[in-house]
Each structure stands twice: as C-alpha cells, then as structure tokens.
Fold:
Amino acid sequence: MKTIQIVAVVVALALVATGVAIIVGSDILGNNSDKKVTVTQSDGTEKEVKYQPQRIVCLSTYTCEFLLIYGYGDKVVGVSNSTYTNPDLKYAFGPGKATDCGSFSKPNISTIVELQPDLVIAYPGYPDVTKALDDVKISYVELKCADLTTIPTEAMSVAKIVGREDLGQKYVDFLNQKTSEVTQKVAAKTVKDKTYMESFSSNYASGPSSAYYTLAVAAGCDMVYSGASGTVSPSAIIEWNPEVILKTPTLVSMEGVKAKTIYDEIKGRTGFDTITAVQNDDIYLICSQLFSGPRCFGGMLAVYESLYPGELSKDWKSALDEYNSMFGVNMSTSGLYYTEHASA
Structure:
C-alpha cells in the first residue's frame, strides 16, 4: 500500500511538471476529488456538483465576490469580462490572476474548455450557454447572487460548494442585521415617496424584474413605473412627476467629476424642470454595485437614507466599512454616491 501511494505522488508531480492540469494531480492524490454536494440554484432547483472544486470558471461578478469573501478566490481560473475589469475585483480576478472568458451571456466556450475547469458557475437565464457547456461535458451550476430576495439562499449555496458554510452563515446573519432596521421602518410607513428609478442609460426605467427595482421597493420607494425595464419617453417621466429620482450608474462612470456630469444631464433634460424631484434636488446617484450582490445591504441603506434622512442608527458607508473589516476585503466606500440635496 505504501509503495502504491508513493508511485501515485510521483505520477502526480510528473503530470504537473509536464503541464497537465493540476486538477488531475489533485484527483490522484484524493483531496475531495469524488465528493459531491447538493446546492440550490438561483431558480430554486437543486443540483449536485463537485465539492471544493480546484479550478472554477465563474461568469457571475456577484458570485465572484462571494468566492472572494469565503477565501476561495485563488481557485478561480476564469471570469466574465465584467469581473475582469471591475474596479473592486480586478486585483483578484483581473490580468495575471484569472483569464477573461468573454461576456457572461456569451462566453468563449473554447477558452473555458482550455482552462479545464472542474466547475463553471454560470449566470442564469442563458440556455445557449448551458447547452454549450453540456455539449463539451463541463459541469456547471447556475448562480446569479444578485437579488436581495434570493441572496441568502445563493450565498449558502456558494458556501456549501467551497466548504465554508460557517462564513456563509456569518454573511447571511450580517445581511439580515443590516437590513432589518430598514425593513421595520418601511413596514411602518403609511406614505412613501414617489420614485422614478433609472438604470445606466438616459430614460431607461427599471421595472419589477430588476434586482435594483426590488431593492428600492424594499427600501421604501413607491415606484411611479411598473412596466418592463426599458426606455420610456421623457414626457411620460414628466407626467409621472416623481418626488425622487434614483439613478444607478456603474462605479467607473461615477469616478471623479463624472457623477456631477450625470447629475447635470438629468436636471438639464427638456421639461424636467417641472418635475418635483428636480426642483427640490431630490436626485440621487447610487452606484450599481450597491444594488446587487453581497453589498446590496449598502444600497438598501443608501436608498432609505436618501428618502428619509436621519432615521437610521448607522449609515450605509459605515456598514460597508464593517463588511470590509469582517470579511477581509477592501471594496470601495467612496465614489459610490452623489447628490446635491441639502440634507446630504
């Protein structure tokens, strides 16, 4: 038996030295190579996948952040381009760390195959992607980790895959603690501010299917638009006459003086000077990274503070500082918020 074990180690080292994927060596040496775990996907279905995979391609930016706070980021060998260039995540998953596998919705399957992953974390809702992964016989699980309502379950699914259920529960407890005060206060509100929520492009309204919309409603917004996410006419926005305008730019588009440029563009739209939100400077730019993913609690707090200033025991920035400290990361806490309202 001892001789067989020694031979196995020698073979494994030889394979690594000759460029064969390290995961092959891991299989020979054991290392949970055959162990499986059943997790809940974003759509609520269950799936059995490899436990503690050693080579992960992760096409969801939000899930990548969970892998990072669970101390498993070094097992990620490929990511979507939105993660590869993300200002907060590229230090862990950008050039020299992971491989750019293309768009999360249309990834480069050939690149993924070359990386020889033992698990792909796919972004849900793209059957062409999962079919392509089936065709090349690569194991995958669909986890978005975006929406406030499903994140607790998804966070635990990621934790189960990597064997860090302790950290998963720690995150879920933290999330509940940070959002519970807002939830209680919103439940007691009888009158809520009429809010128009706009995504990246001008006049592109967020609808109920959007994770951003869901979070804003949970934070106390009374939305003036309830249709499908998409471009609406400026005249419709003027007619709705919102009391609050929420805009959700990316972090890159808010850097430096860019946030003020976006703010001024909203105020300068033809006819918007008649809108109550514009007249009162109740326009708030809150970075999109705070509306989805592990830091969605920050978005919830920021929205509530914007609508009802001075009511919370702790502000959104302090909560983000606590998140960074608790999970050993250094995500942005500045450049995420812009308004010219007097109460800010």
In short: The mean pLDDT is 91. The first strand starts at residue 36 and ends at 40. The two ends are 70 Å apart (CA to CA). The domain at 35-163 is CATH 3.40.50.1980 (Rossmann fold).
